[in-house]
Design goal:
heterodimer, A: about 70 residues, alpha+beta, 4 helices, globular, B: 1 helix, about 90% helix
């Protein structure tokens, strides 16, 4: 279908991004845009919040913005 | 739009602040 997603918002996908480089919440949201995942905005926020709580990434300030990251 | 992205980022940060 035209609405089938080509990007999936999963813990594994988020982990891979955060291992690669520190990202802000906005950076992450850009990777999982609703038009790519087929999720609503609310679902995206809720699922991403649950994933980040589980991953419990390291945090650091870069240019006055909170960035999350993981080490392998 | 960027404003929707801003709103989503703010909502996500609010969720995480409750946790952190």
């Amino acid at each position: 279908t035209p609405s089938s997603s080509d990007v999936q918002l999963t813990e594994d996908a988020v982990r891979r991004y955060l291992i690669r480089k520190p990202m802000t919440t906005k950076d992450l949201l850009k990777k999982f845009q609703t038009k790519r995942t087929g999720l609503s905005s609310e679902q995206t926020v809720n699922v991403l919040a649950q994933i980040l709580k589980r991953l419990n990434p390291e945090r650091k300030m870069v240019n006055d913005k909170m960035h999350f990251y993981l080490t392998e | 739009s960027s404003s929707e992205a801003d709103e989503m980022a703010a909502a996500l940060e609010a969720e995480l602040n409750d946790f952190m």
